[in-house]
TrEMBL record:
<dbReference type="GO" id="GO:0005886">
    <property type="term" value="C:plasma membrane"/>
</dbReference>
<keyword id="KW-0325">Glycoprotein</keyword>
<dbReference type="GO" id="GO:0004674">
    <property type="term" value="F:protein serine/threonine kinase activity"/>
</dbReference>
<dbReference type="Pfam" id="PF00560">
    <property type="entry name" value="LRR_1"/>
</dbReference>
<keyword id="KW-0433">Leucine-rich repeat</keyword>
<feature type="signal peptide">
    <location>
        <begin position="1"/>
        <end position="21"/>
    </location>
</feature>
<dbReference type="InterPro" id="IPR032675">
    <property type="entry name" value="LRR_dom_sf"/>
</dbReference>
<keyword id="KW-0732">Signal</keyword>
<dbReference type="Pfam" id="PF13855">
    <property type="entry name" value="LRR_8"/>
</dbReference>
<keyword id="KW-1003">Cell membrane</keyword>
<dbReference type="InterPro" id="IPR001611">
    <property type="entry name" value="Leu-rich_rpt"/>
</dbReference>
<dbReference type="GO" id="GO:0051707">
    <property type="term" value="P:response to other organism"/>
</dbReference>
<dbReference type="InterPro" id="IPR003591">
    <property type="entry name" value="Leu-rich_rpt_typical-subtyp"/>
</dbReference>
<keyword id="KW-0472">Membrane</keyword>
<keyword id="KW-0808">Transferase</keyword>
<protein>
    <submittedName>
        <fullName>Protein too many mouths</fullName>
        <ecNumber>2.7.11.1</ecNumber>
    </submittedName>
</protein>
<keyword id="KW-0677">Repeat</keyword>
Length: 452
């Protein structure tokens, strides 16, 4: 069958890619190649980069840790650089932060993982950063990356992901960071950042994930954080933040993960936390709260983990908690909780970690044998002298609770003390560590899937 004439018009289009495939037609531009060689030789002595691959982007000769894509003019450009972990180029001892990366006109993504380990270096954003299209900058686990985050970080207008976790950065978070309006993921965790959380950060309404945990931040949590309407994960754990949780948090409708542990927060006021209907993880251990537990937490149907240990909570465990049908973890240890354990807790079919240890709970433990067996060592009721078991043979050593006396009115004097407390403590810690590992990894995995 003869080719219809209009199909001939397609022929040039079909041939077009072949012309690009001719040698060097799509090679990198000279100045970009020079910048790249200069960065590579300052960063890594794995090989002689120039002789190894004179045209690093051309297919077949490309080196590890680099990605190239064709630009509008058909030429190839460096779009991604990764340093620090094999198979990517490893960093030499004299490597310092290469601010030349901002001169690569098509670089979208730069990663430095466990790279700067001996020579002290600081972040630097030259004026040329203003025209950098960088969307992702990640510097993680670089012990010799010191100094402050320069206000000029605001030059990087295209940034969507900024990770500066596990370095030795100190000083205050620059207010100007709030002008990075494309940012969706900001992780400054595990540094020594101090001062207050800039209230201006509330302007970052596109942010999905904010992690400022494990720093030395002080002051109140700015109410403006409640304006970050897209936030799904907020972690401010392990700082020195004080005051109460701002009322405005009730507006964070998308929030699935909220962690505020290890601060000096002293208020769990009526902030409308029950409005956080997406919340799955609420982790607020170790704060000097000294209030009753907020019953409205029982109105968060998606909650899977509720951790409020070591925070001076008093009064009874709210009956509303028994409505949290998706709860897998309830950790209320080391508070001043009193009264009986609500019957319905034992009916939560997904529960597999329940810690009510070191409180002043009283009465008969209301759990079925099935429940006790299912939780095993993930059930900790120890350190509540007023609790007793209704004659369930064999389990009391695991639970750290004695058997109720023959008469139904058990006094604490005829309740057995936990057996071999020291050994139990050690195994509990192991359980808790492995549990935590699982929880965090599980959440991260889920979270990464969301980002993709
Ligand atoms: C409880 O978890 C299940 C399975 O993970 C999920 O399908 C369901 O939507 C959750 N319930 C609520 C109220 O979120
Ligand atoms: C404890 O056992 C007694 C007698 O077996 C029973 O009458 C009582 O209802 C039980 N209490 C609980 C809370 O299970
Ligand atoms: C329960 O919580 C207490 C205090 O917060 C802790 O010391 C203990 O290790 C926990 N037990 C388990 C089994 O995780």
């Amino acid at each position: 069958m003869p080719l219809p004439p209009h199909n001939l018009l397609l022929l040039p289009l079909i041939l077009l890619p072949l012309t690009f495939a001719s040698p060097n037609a799509n090679a990198m531009e000279g100045s970009e190649t020079e910048t790249l060689f200069s960065i590579m030789s300052s960063m890594s002595s794995d090989r002689d980069w120039r002789s190894y691959a004179p045209d690093p982007c051309s297919p077949g000769s490309s080196w590890p840790g680099i990605e190239c894509k064709p630009g509008p003019n058909g030429r190839l450009h460096v779009t991604k650089l990764i340093f620090g972990t094999p198979p990517n180029p490893t960093c030499k001892a004299s490597a310092t932060f290469p601010s030349q990366i901002f001169d690569l006109p098509f670089l979208q993504s730069a990663h430095f993982f466990s790279c700067f380990k001996s020579k002290k270096t600081t972040l630097f954003f030259p004026r040329s950063s203003l025209s950098s299209p960088l969307q992702q900058l990640s510097l993680r686990a670089n012990p010799s990356l010191i100094g402050a985050i320069p206000p000029q970080i605001a030059f990087l207008k295209s940034l969507q992901v900024l990770t500066l976790s596990q370095n030795h950065l100190h000083g205050e978070i620059p207010e100007s960071i709030s002008s990075l309006s494309s940012l969706i993921h900001l992780d400054l965790s595990y540094n020594s950042l101090n001062g207050r959380i800039p209230p201006q950060m509330g302007k970052m309404t596109g942010l999905i994930d904010l992690d400022l945990s494990y720093n030395s931040l002080t002051g109140l949590i700015p109410p403006s954080i409640g304006e970050m309407g897209s936030l799904q994960k907020l972690d401010l754990s392990s700082n020195s933040l004080w005051g109460s949780i701002p009322q405005s948090f009730g507006k964070l409708k998308m929030l699935t993960f909220l962690a505020l542990s290890d601060n000096r927060l002293n208020g769990f006021p009526h902030i409308g936390l029950e409005k956080l209907q997406s919340l799955q993880y609420l982790i607020i251990d170790s704060n000097p709260m000294f209030t009753p537990l907020p019953p409205e937490l029982g109105e968060l149907p998606r909650l899977q983990e509720l951790r409020l240990a070591n925070s001076g909570y008093s009064g009874a465990i709210p009956r509303s908690f028994t409505r949290l049908r998706n709860l897998t973890t309830l950790s209320l240890g080391n508070n001043h909780l009193s009264g009986e354990i609500p019957q319905g807790l034992g009916g939560l079919s997904k529960m597999y970690h329940l810690n009510l240890s070191r409180n002043m709970l009283t009465g008969v433990v209301p759990f079925s044998d099935e429940f006790l067996r299912r939780l095993g060592r993930n059930l900790d009721l120890s350190g509540n002298p007023g609790l007793c078991l209704n004659g369930t043979g064999g389990l009391e050593g695991i639970l750290g609770v004695g058997v109720c006396g023959k008469s139904s009115s058990s006094s604490s004097s005829d309740v057995e003390q936990p057996l071999d407390g020291s050994r139990k403590g050690a195994s509990s810690l192991g359980d808790r560590m492995s549990y935590w590992g699982f929880g965090i990894v599980g959440f991260s995995a889920m979270y990464c899937l969301c980002l993709l």
